[in-house]
Amino acid sequence: MPLYEYICSNCGQQFEELVRGQEQPICPKCGSPKVEKQLSKVAAHSAESGQASHQSPLPCGMPPGCCSGQCGLT
Predict the structure, then answer these.
(1) For labeling, which of 21, 29, 33, 61 is most exposed (least CB within 10 Å)?
(2) Which residues does 74 contact at the CB level (< 8 Å), separation at least 6?
(3) Does the residue 63 lie in any domain?
(4) 54 to each of 7, 17, 23, 46, how far by Cα in Å?
(5) Parallel, antiparallel or unpaired: strands 14-18 and 3-8
(6) Residue 10, in any domain of the structure
(7) On the CB side of 17, how many CA atoms lie within 13 Å of its CA?
(8) What is the pLDDT of residues 26-38, one digit of tens each?
(9) Rounded alpha-carbon distances, angstroms, from residue 49 to 44, 46, 53, 56, 57
(10) What's the CATH number where 18 sits?
(11) If 0-12 CB within 10 Å is exposed, 13-18 middle and 19+ buried, where does residue 71 land?
(12) Which of 8, 11, 37 has its CA nearest to residue 23?
């Protein structure tokens, strides 16, 4: 299940949501289905190498703070 970042067009709330198949997320603050998927920044820049690093410090492959720890891997 991919984790996506969204912003609500109605109230401006930013949130993350696990999305399955063709599910349409709704805003957790106002309940509006008018949400826009945002681009996630997953790569971190290393000043030493000058290149982006795509390695995650977590065993699940997601960046720190990505979820509430529901996967049990954090």
Answers:
(1) 21
(2) 58, 60, 64, 67
(3) no
(4) 24, 21, 28, 10
(5) antiparallel
(6) yes
(7) 22
(8) 999 999 999 999 9
(9) 11, 6, 9, 16, 17
(10) 2.20.28
(11) middle
(12) 37
- Kindly report the pTM of this predicted structure: 0.52
**Single-letter residue type at 33:** P
Mean pLDDT (the chain, rounded): 74
Measure the CA–CA gap between 36 and 17, rounded to whole angstroms. 12
Looking at 15-24, 26-35, 42-51, which range is the least confident one? Answer: 42-51
Q: Residue 35 sits in which domain range?
A: 3-47
| Number of helical H runs and strand E runs in the chain | 0, 5
61 within domain boundaries: no
**Locus of tokens 């991919």:** 2
Please state the domain count of the chain. Answer: 1
